Amino acid sequence: MSLAQPLSAQLSQAELAAAAVELKTAPAEQVLAWAERRFGSSAAIASSFGAEDVVLIDLARQHAPSLRLFTLDTGRLPPETYELIETLRKRYGLEVETFFPQRERVETLVSTQGYFSFRQSLEARKACCGIRKVEPLKRALTGRQAWVTGMRREQSVTRTGVETVEFDADHGGLAKLNPLASWSAKQIWSYIQENGVPYNALHDRGYPSIGCAPCTRAVKPYEDERAGRWWWESADKKECGLHVRG
């Protein structure tokens, strides 16, 4: 789809802009209910099964049950993440659409650069993320009108500008919804505890943000939530390319 064209036959950029104003400070439940009415099964939640994502899944089952759910399996996820996925599948009766990286590209990367090339430089890390995450995301979003994420402004310096409703030109002109944009970590955990939502066991071991196992570690109490992601890089570089900003 050309970026100069409308988002779809039904949704124009002007309508999305109006929705962005209307839903800017709306509760997550209202944003999800709007997504259900406007997109239904043509929208999907992108989940890495962190704390925010399990909250989204629980809320969506109540307010946007038609939304699809997908995840990107990089081949290097912690076992605790897979255990959680299975727990959630059984609890909610979920179908989790799973997208893997292209085998040939992974084989070439590892054969020529080794198993830890991503620690050599920012460029090398982004190349690994490009193969294991960015390309699979493009396939995951093909045919969608909208995607929903658990991004929050409080998470890191790279996410302070996150809006509740955005136009995502980088993935073909989709609507991108971030219903939890204004939520604090305290709100996330209060929801999980009050509603008995299953969550990744690594959170109890000091991992507020969880990605690939070799690229994630526990953080100190004084560090920000994403300090354990690619900890050898500066804070303003800690994005993998899934969420392009600016």
Automatic annotation (TrEMBL):
Its EC number is 1.8.4.10. [4Fe-4S] cluster binds at C128, C129, C212, C215. GO terms for biological process: cysteine biosynthetic process; hydrogen sulfide biosynthetic process; sulfate assimilation, phosphoadenylyl sulfate reduction by phosphoadenylyl-sulfate reductase (thioredoxin). Transmembrane segments: none annotated. GO terms for cellular component: cytoplasm. Pathway: Sulfur metabolism; hydrogen sulfide biosynthesis; sulfite from sulfate. SUPFAM superfamilies: Adenine nucleotide alpha hydrolases-like. Its cofactor is [4Fe-4S] cluster. It is found in: Cytoplasm. Binds 1 [4Fe-4S] cluster per subunit. The active site is at C240 (nucleophile). Keywords: Cytoplasm, Iron, Iron-sulfur, Metal-binding, Oxidoreductase. InterPro entries: APS_reductase (IPR011798), PAPS/APS_Rdtase (IPR004511), PAPS_reduct_dom (IPR002500), Rossmann-like_a/b/a_fold (IPR014729). One of its GO terms (molecular function) is phosphoadenylyl-sulfate reductase (thioredoxin) activity. Catalyzes the formation of sulfite from adenosine 5'-phosphosulfate (APS) using thioredoxin as an electron donor. Belongs to the PAPS reductase family. CysH subfamily. This is Adenosine 5'-phosphosulfate reductase. It comes from Hyalangium minutum. The lineage of its organism: Bacteria, Pseudomonadati, Myxococcota, Myxococcia, Myxococcales. The gene is cysH.
